[in-house]
Design goal:
mainly alpha, 2 helices, 0% strand, elongated, transmembrane helix, glycoprotein
Length: 81
């Protein structure tokens, strides 16, 4: 009988990857308190604070110091989003 699919030689009817289960509990991350991790967190916080301050400055300038035009209104709405 002809079949419309390819029969593979190494095919098994049961998926053996489903039998591999991960033990419950904490994952063994031994380097979670490394100095590189602390540096990356500090850099991320610094970049976030600088970005928030810069965006706030642009919103303040476009909102209160520039004339209200279509372009500044569009720019302000894009900055808030």
């Amino acid at each position: 009988m002809s079949v419309d699919y390819i029969e593979y030689d190494d095919y098994t009817p049961y998926n053996e990857t489903e039998n591999n289960t991960i033990k419950t509990g904490l994952l063994p991350f031994s380097s979670c308190h490394s100095s590189l991790n602390h540096v990356l967190v500090a850099v991320n916080i610094i970049i976030s604070v600088i970005g928030l301050g810069g965006n706030s400055l642009v919103i303040w300038i476009c909102g209160w110091k520039m004339k209200r035009t279509v372009t500044t209104t569009w720019s302000k709405s894009m900055e808030i989003i």
